Structures are given as C-alpha cells and as structure tokens.
C-alpha cells in the first residue's frame, strides 16, 4: 500500500511553483500620479512618500527636480515609495490618486527605476 502525500506538502509545493511562474512572467511597472489629482492630494502624497523614502532626487539641481511642478514631484516620490514596498498595486493607491503604468516614465537623467 503506497503512503499518501500529506495535502499541506502538496499545497506548499504548488504555491512555490506557481509563485515562481508568476514572478518569471511579471512585467515591470511604475507608479505615477493621476493627472486628474487635486493639488492638495498631490502635496499630501509627496509629503507622505518622502516621509517614508529618500526623496533627495527631487532637490534643486538633482536629477528629478525639473520640471519643477507638483505632479512631477509627486509622481517621482510615489514611484520611489511604490518601488521600495515591492511594486504591489496597493502601494500605488494613494487614496485612488496613483496610477500603475507599464511604460517607463523616466526622462532625461531622472530614472524612475
């Protein structure tokens, strides 16, 4: 009589194999601010993200300072936060003002990563 495999071992194996396949096919994404976002929301997003991650790239004379406007700075900060948290879609929510995109928003020397 053959010994049955414990169901939980099978489940762990299945999850690990499925997880590997998902990661292998996962597309790179970025987080940016929705163009329709209110200025106050963008400012709150910028302040929150920069309280959690290093936003020095947004300082004057740094790579992502120009264009010097709120939607650009919020987008860079939101993406830094999103990236630092593992690029999970929920880390780009920002009260429904974040947008996960498939096209790299980098420009000039400002690399979104």
Strand content: 5-15%
Strand order of the largest sheet: 1-2
Biggest pleated-sheet summary: 2 strands, antiparallel
Distance linking N and C termini: 56 Å
- Shape estimate: globular
How many β-strands, per DSSP? 2
| Element pattern in H and E | HEHHE
Helical run tally: 3
Q: Which structural category fits the helices and strands?
A: mainly alpha
Poorly predicted runs of 5 or more residues? 1-24
- What's the Cα radius of gyration? 19 Å
> Helix share of residues?
40-55%
Mean residue pLDDT: 84
Brief characterization of the structure:
About 40% of the residues lie in helices and about 5% in strands. With about 110 residues, it is mainly α.
Structure notes:
This protein is mainly alpha-helical and 113 residues long. The chain contains three helices and two strands. It has a two-stranded antiparallel ribbon. The model is unreliable at 1-24 (pLDDT under 50).
């Amino acid at each position: 009589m053959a010994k049955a495999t414990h169901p939980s071992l099978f489940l762990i194996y299945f999850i690990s194999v499925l997880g590997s396949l998902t990661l292998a096919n996962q597309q790179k994404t970025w987080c940016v601010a929705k163009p329709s976002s209110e200025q106050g929301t963008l400012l709150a997003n910028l302040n929150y993200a920069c309280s959690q991650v290093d936003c020095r790239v947004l300082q004057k004379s740094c790579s992502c300072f120009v264009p010097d406007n709120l939607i650009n700075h919020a987008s860079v900060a939101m993406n830094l936060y999103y990236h630092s948290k593992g690029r999970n879609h929920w880390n780009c929510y920002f009260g429904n003002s974040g947008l996960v995109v498939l096209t790299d928003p980098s420009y000039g020397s400002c690399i979104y990563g």
